[in-house]
Write a structure and sequence with these properties.
The complex is a heterodimer of chains A (209) and B (577).
Chain A lengths: L2 E3 L3 H25 L9 H28 L12 H21 L15 H26 L5 H6 L3 H26 L7 H8 L1 E3 L6
Helix pairs in contact in A: 1-2, 2-4, 4-6
Chain B lengths: L7 E4 L2 E4 L16 H15 L14 H10 L4 E3 L5 E3 L4 H5 L28 H9 L2 H4 L2 H4 L3 H8 L6 H5 L16 H9 L4 E4 L2 E4 L4 H6 L7 H4 L17 H9 L7 H8 L2 H7 L8 H5 L23 H8 L2 H5 L10 H5 L14 H7 L3 H6 L5 H7 L2 H5 L6 E9 L8 H10 L9 H14 L4 E9 L30 E6 L5 E6 L9 H4 L12 H27 L1 H4 L12
Parallel strand pairs in B: 7-9
Antiparallel strand pairs in B: 1-2, 3-4, 5-6, 7-8, 9-10
The chains are: A mainly alpha (209), B alpha+beta (577).
């Protein structure tokens, strides 16, 4: 069985640091929002760590953007512009997860370094990396320095609206985490994809496309 | 010192025998002494031909008085049974200048004769004085004494002063005689330095003035008539009739405006003037703060003992006394603020529960933003909503959230009459304003007001600044506010302004702070943990449960369909992450 070098080292490092940041941000964010209900660290400590985690996440986002732009791999995130083809391939993928997988049918998509995500992944990650992450980052920065951005915050609906948007994106990410982790176990073995995120290599299908 | 022997007076330890009656003036001119008296008599007669400037000028006591003065010219006192004393020394010259100079002493002192001087046995000085005073009425008839209404009122009182209190006892003169002597103040004090009262609405009002008050006041150079313009040496009209002592006080203060117009104009714009205009006579007038006759310097009001506000606002002043400013005030050189520093001295504005006078704080603490920025993230956002007092007052005092309905351009509170009308229209006058009702009120106000309505939020403590504590007691833990169970958000009120400028508060359901209606309404007010949007909690739980449901349902379905895949290959490729 041949192996594909699917996840270069920078991508793997970015991924796991991202995991660390997300865990820290979710935990401290929960502490900031639910002080009095959750009391596992002082409020000011939670805010300080949340700020550090947030800027780390921003840094990682910039690293991600720079790496994918410079390496020319950004196209892996871009859904097929041929709408008909995209819908057809998405439907095939959705049918697989909703039906074929239970019957033991083969996955219609085969990953390669230049074609890393199936159409559904592309749609999800495109939305996450190009819309939700920037929204999370921008609202986070606004909430970080209310004094500096007071006029802008007022213009877009006020602190409560910005905070609500920040929280909604966070809620979506937390919900997505469960789906994300579950889907990583749907390889040929439950640990296949998870191992690949450590080693970078994934076994290529024997009759690969 | 005490006269005891019949016909003698013990004077300063010396004993003299009373001269025989008529011993001086009734002696024939052949007496060797006539050689001395004759030229004097001639001079006196000569002097009588020329105008005099006063009664006493060149006058001599009559013969009987001369005799009495043999002893009574010298110092001496008489002590009565109750310990009160009276001087028995008589100034012969002053007596000679009195309107009674032609009378012999015994004309009034009727129990004394030239040949019989019994020892006085009066129990008190007053008894003695009243006894002598009885002689006055033998010449001055009641109709004469009561012809002047003012005189009638003064002498008819049960506690009326004796005649001598105003007219003198030996240098007896008409009160009008004082006109020629000294200032008008001295003239007035002829009577008003004595115990003198009048009754207003059943209450006794003192009319007694201590000369020392005037001399010690900033008005020491003024005459009584400068303020009491209706009165003069030439006339004492009947006092005006007032319904109450307070009415008299307010009327009397009008005279202050003649010199202090600028202050009076400012005062007319004060909450005190508003109270008075509403008929509340308790409102202070000039003299309530500055004193009527003991007017002290302005700086006196900036001292703990001299500040006049405490007379009516004792409870507040006691709170101030224990505050960081109050504790430092008596000894500090940096002049910690007293009442007028924040409330101003004359144009006193209504107290605002919903907003501490932050500008006042900043006038002495200009570096507040920098100082707070060292420990407080987003100091501007914090300090815009959180009053200085919200952190600098001990925690035992309740914090409230005030939603100030304001004109966005000026920051002034909107008129409460309209707020009440709109609330009534919605049927929410007698209960807390709910989140939706608050939103409706805002919408209604926005529709009806010509101004741009804004809800300015403020966290504050009622009677706030009076409890300001030293720095080390200030709230420093974020969790005091930033906590779901913080008590700071349990009391919420909408604030508007009554017609007289006073603040009116309407209770609001505290849930309004965390309501979805507040996203727009209170868009600048968000306390992490403290006032989070509770609707988001439910939405969050539903979305996350949805995320968790996918693995559970999909995994369960895979387990249930395991038999379908037996004998087939494992699915290939990567699954969606």
């Amino acid at each position: 069985m041949s192996r594909i070098y699917l996840h270069p080292l920078p991508v793997r490092m970015w991924h796991w640091l991202n995991v660390l940041c997300f865990v820290v941000l979710i935990v401290t964010g929960a502490q900031i929002r639910y002080r009095g209900i959750l009391n596992f660290m002082p409020f000011s400590t939670a805010v300080d760590i949340h700020n550090i985690g947030g800027f780390s996440l921003i840094g990682l986002f910039l690293v991600w953007a720079a790496y994918y732009i410079v390496s020319g791999r950004m196209k892996v995130y871009l859904p097929d512009l041929n709408i008909k083809r995209f819908i057809e391939s998405s439907w095939k993928q959705a049918r697989y997860y909703g039906y074929g997988i239970f019957r033991g049918e083969p996955n219609p998509f085969h990953a390669s370094p230049d074609h890393k995500f199936n159409p559904m992944q592309q749609l999800a990650y495109f939305g996450i990396m190009f819309f939700l992450m920037p929204l999370l980052i921008v609202t986070g920065i606004l909430l970080w320095d209310l004094d500096r951005f007071a006029a802008f915050i007022d213009g877009i609906g006020g602190i409560k609206a910005v905070s609500a948007a920040h929280l909604l994106v966070t809620i979506f990410f937390v919900a997505f985490l469960f789906v994300h982790v579950y889907l990583t176990t749907l390889g040929r073995t439950p640990w296949e994809h998870i191992k690949a995120m450590f080693t970078g290599y994934e076994d290529a299908p024997e009759h690969g496309h | 010192m005490v006269s005891s022997a019949r016909g003698t007076i013990v004077v300063k330890g010396t004993r003299r025998t009373a001269r025989e009656p008529g011993a001086s003036m009734s002696a024939p001119l052949t007496n060797p002494l006539s050689a001395v008296f004759l030229p004097i008599l001639c001079l006196l007669l000569l002097g009588a031909l020329f105008p005099r400037t006063g009664h006493a000028a060149g006058a001599q006591p009559n013969a009987e008085a001369e005799t009495c003065l043999t002893c009574h010219a010298g110092p001496g006192t008489k002590t009565f049974s109750d310990g009160t004393t009276v001087s028995v020394q008589i100034d012969g010259k002053r007596f000679a200048g009195s309107v009674h100079r032609s009378f012999g002493c015994t004309s009034c002192h009727r129990d004394v004769k030239l040949d019989d001087h019994p020892s006085a046995t009066y129990a008190t000085k007053r008894q003695f004085v009243l006894h002598v005073q009885a002689s006055c009425s033998s010449c001055h008839s009641e109709s004469q004494l009561k012809a002047n209404p003012l005189h009638q009122r003064v002498i008819s009182r049960q506690d009326a002063q004796p005649c001598s209190a105003c007219h003198g006892s030996h240098a007896i003169a008409k009160v009008l005689a004082w006109k020629d002597r000294g200032s008008s103040t001295q003239y007035c004090l002829t009577c008003h330095s004595k115990p003198l009262t009048r009754s207003i609405d059943g209450k006794t009002v003192s009319l007694t003035i201590d000369d020392a008050w005037i001399k010690g006041s900033v008005h020491s150079s003024h005459e009584c008539t400068d303020c009491h313009t209706a009165y003069s040496k030439g006339g004492h009209p009947s006092p005006k009739v007032f319904a109450s002592g307070r009415e008299l006080t307010h009327a009397a203060s009008e005279t202050c405006e003649r010199c202090h117009l600028e202050k009076a104009v400012k005062e007319k714009d004060s909450i005190h003037a508003v109270l008075l205009a509403k008929g509340d006579q308790r409102a202070p007038s000039c003299s309530d703060c500055h004193g009527a006759h003991q007017v002290g310097p302005g700086a006196l009001a900036d001292t703990m003992d001299g500040v006049p506000c405490r007379k009516c606002h004792e409870e507040i002043f006691d709170a101030y006394r224990t505050s960081v400013h109050g504790m430092k005030k008596p000894t500090a050189t940096a002049h910690p603020p007293l009442c007028a520093a924040c409330h101003t001295a004359h144009e006193v504005k209504p107290a605002m529960a919903s907003r501490s006078p932050r500008d006042m704080c900043l006038s002495c603490h200009p570096a507040y933003e920098k100082e707070h920025g060292q420990r407080l993230p987003n100091p501007k956002a914090h300090l815009e909503m959180v009053a200085c007092t919200a952190c600098h007052v001990p925690l035992e005092y309740k914090r409230s959230i005030y939603l100030r309905l304001t004109d966005a351009a000026t920051g002034k509170l909107l008129n409460d009459a309209e707020v009440q009308m709109l609330l009534k229209k919605r049927g929410v006058t007698a209960k807390q304003i709910g989140p939706k009702e608050l939103w409706q009120l805002y919408r209604d106000l926005t529709a009806t007001q010509a101004v741009n309505v804004a809800v300015a939020v403020s966290m504050d403590v009622r009677r706030n600044a009076h409890y300001l504590a030293p720095k080390d007691i200030a709230v420093k833990q974020c969790e005091i506010c930033h906590s779901a169970d913080s008590s700071f958000f349990n009391t919420v009120a909408v604030a508007a302004a009554a017609a007289d400028g006073r603040e009116v508060l309407h209770d609001v359901d505290p849930r309004a702070l965390g309501s979805a209606y507040g996203v727009v309404l209170l868009k600048r007010f968000y306390v992490m943990s403290g006032t989070r949007l509770t609707a988001m909690d439910y939405a969050g739980v539903m979305i996350i449960l949805g995320g968790m449901a996918f693995p559970v349902l999909h995994g369960t379905a895979r387990m249930m369909t395991r038999h379908l895949r037996q004998g087939t290959q494992k699915p290939e490729g990567r699954a969606k992450r």
